[in-house]
Amino acid sequence: IGADYLVVQHGLVTPYAPPLPHNSVLLAFSEADAEFWISGRSDITSEVVGSQLFFEAAQQAQLGSTTEVSDGLVFLGQMHGAELPRLSFAKSSYEFCQKNGAVYRPHPSERDKISTLTHKLWAKKGIKIDTSARPLNQSNTPVVSIFSTGVLEAAIRGVPSWVYHSNPPAWLKEFWDRYGMKQWGGESTAAPAQPELEPALAIAQYIAHRLEK
């Protein structure tokens, strides 16, 4: 289609995302994401198509009834992540749950021995661990996380959501700002704006247009 690679953004972008292939076209969630990921390279072009995940969440929210927010608070675990040291994830998660009485919801990938032992230790210290495996999009309990996509998904559904880290590095603060994620203690995160055209359709139309050339 006139380019070596067509790269479709599938998730939130951190500084640890792999570099884009040479002479590729990036189909991004937003202008901010495109600018961040391209990082000044002249061999990359981009088009903004939005996020299919967020678009579908917004469509479902419009079809559903008014969200009734539940009592309580859930901290979305991310100890499986490679973006921060495990100790950093664990320290901030435990500190938040202990101070605010939040329920810790392990990420589905937190099944390794260290993670499961950590969950057991926290439970003994009074932290409630969510073992229900209930889909997050079926819960209306306010959420907090370090940088989980679930923060924005909750915001789209009208559920209050925030981010928290006891000592956030500079890249994490930039990440929060780029996605409009609000820190715990202030106003909650606003739902990200959605494109008029469904992202999957926008991608299909872009490819069809390129093939016509």
Description:
By secondary structure, the chain is α/β, with parallel strands linked by helices. It has 7 helices and 7 strands; from the N terminus they run ββαβαβαβαβαβαα. It has a 4-stranded parallel β-sheet, with helices on both faces. A 3-stranded parallel β-sheet has the order 1-2-3. It is globular and about 65 Å long.
Give a quick summary of the entry:
The chain has 213 residues and is α/β, with parallel strands linked by helices. The chain is built from seven helices and seven strands; from the N terminus they run E-E-H-E-H-E-H-E-H-E-H-E-H-H. Helix content is 37%, strand content 12%.
Low-confidence stretches: none
What does the main sheet amount to? 4 strands, parallel
Alpha carbon gyration radius: 19 Å
Number of helices: 7
The protein's oligomeric status is single chain
- Backbone shape: globular
Helix/strand structural class: alpha/beta
Secondary structure tally: strands: 7
Give me the strand/helix succession. EEHEHEHEHEHEHH
Mean pLDDT: 92
Work out the strand percent: 5-15%
Largest sheet, spatial ordering of strands = 5-4-6-7
Distance between the termini: 8 Å
Helix content: 25-40%
Keywords:
globular, alpha/beta, 4-stranded parallel beta sheet
Topology:
Layout: E1 5-8, E2 24-28, H1 31-38, E3 45-48, H2 52-63, E4 74-76, H3 86-100, E5 103-105, H4 113-124, E6 143-145, H5 149-156, E7 161-163, H6 170-179, H7 199-212
Parallel strand pairs: 1-2, 2-3, 4-5, 4-6, 6-7
